[in-house]
Each structure stands twice: as structure tokens, then as C-alpha cells.
Specification:
mainly beta; 5-stranded antiparallel beta sheet; 1 helix; globular; dTDP-4-dehydrorhamnose 3,5-epimerase; RmlC-like; dTDP-4-dehydrorhamnose 3,5-epimerase activity
């Protein structure tokens, strides 16, 4: 069984699967559809993604896809540690433009459920961090969008100085929230 808890933005949930350990190591059902359904989360995932970030400070994001390929994401860290961030892009939401930042690690075994209508990103806090996430829609280049990680209006504390962050060229060029079209009502 798993635990599911609300964050400061209730649509974003922390999921913690049960982990059974002994002298051999551990066993965990990291994803079980019926357990999520019992927690009121009924999603159908269609794709698994896996990233390895070699350097501390590797920042991936903030990313999202628009309809009809908008994605819910269930994110976890299998090795290392990362600060995972979800930014509310739902224009009619009372938490529009607000964010949740949760540390995920192989140690704490937590996962973050990032629903449709949120931009998602993470920064690695340990070398060789592996992040895995399930999504409810396949990748669509035509529907792939981003939000500036360093937009002052978002006020995200990435825990590292911006000069120490490692980003792709693409992730350095995303628009600020004020310049972003309203993709989600």
C-alpha cells in the first residue's frame, strides 16, 4: 500500500510507496494502479521516461505539454537526490503561478504526482541522479512547451546559485509566465 498526501497546492500530491527491507536489501511496488485508485488517483500511464544527470546542478525544465497531449506525471528518483518543482499554469486556479518544490531521493522514496496544467522541472542535488517518471500522454514535439526556470515572478529557490546550474540551450530560452500563452483554463 502507499500513502498519498496533499502539498501546498492540493492537486499536486506526494506519493510514498511501501518499502520492505531486510538484510538482503529491499522490495517495493513503486507503481500499482489499484493502490493509486484506492487513494483517489485514477490515471492511465502510457510512457515511462528515465533520465541520468551526471552533474550536481543539472536543471531540466520547466516543461509541459499542451492539449491534446497534456500529461500527468508521476516522478521518482531511483538514484541520488533532486529538487522536483511543479508550477501551476491553470489560469483560473487560485494558485496560478505558484509552485511546489519537494525533495525526491532514493533515500526518502517519495514520488511527486504532477497533474495536467502544471509545468514541471527538477534540479539534481547529487551526482549521477536518475529520475524516472510515468506520463499519461506520449511525447509530442508540436505540443512541447516550457517556462523560464529563473522567472522572478515564480520565486523558485533552486537551492544552488544560478551560475552553478547546468541547462540545455532550449531550457535557457523559455518565456516568462507573463509572456506565456494561457494553455490551461
Amino acid at each position: 500500500m502507499l500513502s498519498a498526501e496533499d502539498t501546498a497546492i492540493p492537486a499536486v500530491k506526494i506519493i510514498t510507496p511501501k518499502k520492505h527491507g531486510d538484510h538482503r536489501g529491499f522490495f517495493s511496488e513503486v507503481y500499482k494502479q489499484s493502490d493509486l485508485a484506492s487513494a483517489g488517483i485514477e490515471l492511465v500511464f502510457v510512457q515511462d521516461n528515465h533520465s541520468l544527470s551526471a552533474q550536481v546542478g543539472t536543471l531540466r525544465g520547466l516543461h509541459f505539454q499542451s492539449a491534446p497531449f497534456a500529461q500527468d506525471k508521476l516522478v521518482r528518483v531511483a538514484r541520488g537526490r533532486a529538487l522536483d518543482v511543479a508550477v501551476d499554469l491553470r489560469a483560473s486556479s487560485p494558485t496560478f503561478g505558484k509552485h511546489v518544490a519537494i525533495e525526491l531521493s532514493a533515500q526518502n522514496w517519495r514520488q511527486l504526482l504532477v497533474p495536467i496544467g502544471f509545468a514541471h522541472g527538477f534540479v539534481t542535488l547529487e551526482p549521477n541522479t536518475e529520475v524516472l517518471y510515468k506520463v499519461t500522454a506520449p511525447y509530442s514535439p508540436a505540443n512541447d512547451h516550457g517556462l523560464a526556470f529563473n522567472d522572478p515572478a515564480l520565486g523558485i529557490d533552486w537551492r544552488l546559485p544560478h551560475g552553478e546550474l547546468v541547462l540545455s540551450d532550449k531550457d535557457q530560452k523559455h518565456p516568462r509566465l507573463a509572456d506565456l500563452p494561457r494553455y490551461f483554463d
